[in-house]
UniProtKB/TrEMBL annotation:
Source taxon at top rank: Bacteria
Occurrences of domain N-acetyltransferase (ranges): 1-160
Gene3D superfamilies xref list: 3.40.630.30
Pfam families for this protein: Acetyltransf_1
Protein name: GNAT family N-acetyltransferase
Spans through the membrane: none
Species the sequence originates in: Pseudoalteromonas obscura
CDD domains tied to this protein: NAT_SF
Length: 160
């Protein structure tokens, strides 16, 4: 069900990706980004990108990349997106669990999420259930389209 993402997979997933960035509720991505730039950010710049597929349909995806270089290159970062029809079905959990396994296989020892929007309570609760801690709050870090300036969290988990 979870495998490396291909360019064709991304093309199929693009409407979901575009909708997420247009909503401007969870990702600090340019809402005017085109498909080519989105592919570059999600699939080419990270070390790996994966897709969750069910019955031949892309239901979610994540990327995995180093969070920093040099003496901090043992900490990785991931981003996750799930299609609306897959929400509430455990897809994000499966993607996160898979990403932790992949991170360890790639030699990472910890995972850090740099900006989890505080209003994304479902994601915050899931990450906490999976062992991530809020280690910092960035005040007024996100311009939410309905709530105005809200906080973002830095979340972290030691993987070993």
């Amino acid at each position: 069900m979870i495998r490396a993402m291909t360019k064709q997979d991304f093309r199929e997933f693009w409407p979901v990706f575009k909708d997420v960035i247009l909503q401007q509720e969870t990702y600090a991505f340019d809402p005017q980004m085109d498909e080519n730039r989105a592919y570059q950010i999600w699939c080419e710049e990270p070390i790996k990108a994966f897709v969750y597929e069910d019955n031949g349909q892309v239901m979610g995806s994540y990327y995995l990349k180093a969070n920093a270089m040099g003496p901090s290159d043992h900490i990785c970062n991931c981003g996750y997106m799930v299609s609306p029809q897959a929400r509430g079905k455990g897809v994000a959990r499966k993607l996160c669990e898979h990403s932790q396994q992949q991170a360890l296989l790639l030699g990472f020892r910890a995972m850090q999420f740099n900006s989890v929007v505080s209003s994304n309570q479902i994601a915050v609760a899931l990450w906490e259930k999976l062992g991530y801690e809020i280690i910092g709050t960035i005040p007024k870090a996100y311009r939410h389209p309905h709530l105005g300036l809200i906080d973002s969290y830095i979340m972290y988990k030691w993987l070993e």
